Amino acid sequence: MKAKTPVSAGAKVRGFTLIELLVALAAMAVMAGLSWRGLDGMVRAQSQIQQRADAVLTLQAGLAQWSSDLDALLQLPGTPTIDWDGRGLRIVRRSTVQPGDGLLVVAWSRRNINGVDQWLRWQSPPQLSRGALQTAWERAAQWAQNPGDAEKRDEVRIIPVAQWQIFYYRGNAWTNPLSSDNAAAPNTPIRGAPASADAAAASDLALPDGVRLILTLPAGEAISGTLTRDWVRPALSGAKS
After folding, report:
1. In whole angstroms, what is the distance from residue 24 CA to residue 164 CA?
2. How many Cα atoms are found within 13 Å in the side-chain-facing hemisphere of 180?
3. Residue 222 in contact with residue 55, Cβ under 8 Å?
4. Is there a contact between 105 and 123 (Cβ–Cβ < 8 Å)?
């Protein structure tokens, strides 16, 4: 066997210099930074997708509730059951939980909450008498105009909206509910005495054949733009759009 040659005392074992070590560390830092930026971008994209999905689901739930309220709209002789005053839409609807639960008054409106304009829904407890129904109807109007703490407890925030508009469909045309063409019957309060046949007919005429909802969704949110939703009375068309 060939003997190993011993390392002389004067020979030096070569390693990494300080400069080489610093260059290697800098390269690793750059690679780590690039990797972090990629991961951060993926997380941000996933978060935006989730926010948009949540916003879509919330909007769909709100529109479904809107259609459900209109589908359950009642016709009561001599009694207004739908009213738009420019700020809020009030509806008298039947309860769909159990028969005999009474009638509900619901209202939709827009109000600025903490600097954000919100589309809101309000609902009264079930009402079993005409007097209680009249009181709930008036509370709904108060809530849409200038709500107090008592009225705010019964409201639900739907989605942020920049503005909203309501149109009624009558006479083969969409018109502003506040125009004279839609004043088919006076918005009389609920009375305890039975209404005449003429008042009942006028109240029936006051119900629109359809309601158009136009929502302007604010920029900068997960969903933005203008959304239009048309509803047609099921008794007239057998379906809603």
Report:
1. 60
2. 0
3. yes
4. yes
- Domain that includes residue 60, residue range: 49-237
pLDDT digits (tens, 9 = 90+) for 73-113: 998 888 889 999 999 999 999 987 766 788 999 999 999 99
Give pTM, 2 decimals.
0.72
The count of domains in the chain is: 1
* Residue 13 counted as domain residue: no
Residue with tokens 């020979």: 11
Give the whole-angstrom CA distance, residue 52 versus residue 236: 36
Strand, coil or helix: what is 39?
A: helix
Residue at 137: amino acid letter: W
Per-residue tokens: 82:
């739908």
Instruction: Give the type of residue at 48.
Output: Q
- Is 110 part of any domain? yes
In a domain, 176, yes or no: yes
Mean pLDDT along residues 149-156: 91
Q: Is residue 210 part of a domain?
A: yes
